């Protein structure tokens, strides 16, 4: 696992040029099957469109890269969309640009600019984020340390997913993997080593300007 950039949510973008309407849609995907399903869903939604062109990049190492001109002149649609994804340094994202032909030909240059704009604006509207590796773990401690630990977690912007109060207090925490060792040592010092850490799983979380977003 390693950190990468992708999108957080899907927001369409549309505009009209020389009577042709272009509609950009994008989605976070984690497999080629998910990407193809998304392309099919857009083709179904805009089944009366002239073209539904697409591109996607998948994998932490960006090993899967595909594009489709869907009937537009070669290299005027799919590749421009793919190049936008590359320029933004994104992966695990699929972009589909729908075109309703308005009767006026745009030429190769015009098509490239239109598909580039539709995909670029769609991605920007969808919020580009860092997909960072987080460690989901539990900390177990005595009631005497509740106040100091809650203040510490709040002051360090550490997300607490769940709190359980029984014989001891148990918090489920999400923490940036890069900060885990530092925070663990500080919690040990804070509680005089009267704290237990239990690993649950590693997970990807969306981060924007250093803050978790859900």
Protein architecture, described:
The chain is an alpha+beta fold and 214 residues long. It has two domains: 4-125, 2-Layer Sandwich (Ribosomal Protein S5, domain 2); 132-212, Alpha-Beta Plaits, CATH 3.30.70. It contains five helices and eleven strands, in the order βββαββαβαβαββαββ. The strands form two sheets. Strands 1, 7, 8, 9, 10 and 11 form a six-stranded antiparallel β-sheet that branches. Helix 2 (78-87) packs across helix 3 (107-125). The protein is elongated, with a radius of gyration of 23 Å. It starts with a strand and ends with a strand. 31% of the residues are buried. The mean pLDDT is 95.
Question: Any idea what the radius of gyration is?
Answer: 23 Å
How many helices?
5
How many domains is the backbone divided into? 2
CATH superfamily of the largest domain: Impact, N-terminal domain
Number of strands: 11
User: Major β-sheet, in short?
Assistant: 6 strands, antiparallel
Assigned CATH architecture of the largest domain: 2-Layer Sandwich
Which descriptors would you attach to this protein?
6-stranded antiparallel sheet; IMPACT family member YigZ; single chain; 5-stranded antiparallel sheet; Alpha-Beta Plaits; 214 residues; Ribosomal Protein S5, domain 2; EFG_III/V; Impact; alpha+beta; Impact_N_sf
Secondary structure: elements and pairs:
Elements: E1 4-7, E2 13-17, E3 20-28, H1 32-45, E4 51-58, E5 64-68, H2 78-87, E6 93-100, H3 107-125, E7 128-141, H4 146-155, E8 159-165, E9 169-176, H5 180-190, E10 195-208, E11 211-213
Antiparallel strand pairs: 1-7, 2-3, 3-6, 4-5, 4-6, 7-9, 7-10, 8-9, 10-11
Helix pairs in contact: 2-3
């Amino acid at each position: 696992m390693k950190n990468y950039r992708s999108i957080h949510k899907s927001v369409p973008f549309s505009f009209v040029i020389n009577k042709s309407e272009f509609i950009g849609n994008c989605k976070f995907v984690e497999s080629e099957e998910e990407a193809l399903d998304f392309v099919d869903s857009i083709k179904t939604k805009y089944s009366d469109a002239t073209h539904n062109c697409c591109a996607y990049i998948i994998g932490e190492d960006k090993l899967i890269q595909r594009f489709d001109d869907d009937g537009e002149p070669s290299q005027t649609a799919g590749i421009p969309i793919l190049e936008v994804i590359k320029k933004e340094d994104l992966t695990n994202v699929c972009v589909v640009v729908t075109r309703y032909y308005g009767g006026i030909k745009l030429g190769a240059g015009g098509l490239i600019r239109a598909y580039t704009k539709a995909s670029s604006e769609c991605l920007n509207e969808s919020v580009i984020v860092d997909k960072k590796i987080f460690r989901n773990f539990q900390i177990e401690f005595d009631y005497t340390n509740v106040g100091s630990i809650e203040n510490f977690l709040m002051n360090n912007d550490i997300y607490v997913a769940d709190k359980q109060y029984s014989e001891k207090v148990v918090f489920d925490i999400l923490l940036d993997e890069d900060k885990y060792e530092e925070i663990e040592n500080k919690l040990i010092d804070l509680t005089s080593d009267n704290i237990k850490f239990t690993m649950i799983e590693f997970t990807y979380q969306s981060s924007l300007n250093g803050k978790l977003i859900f």
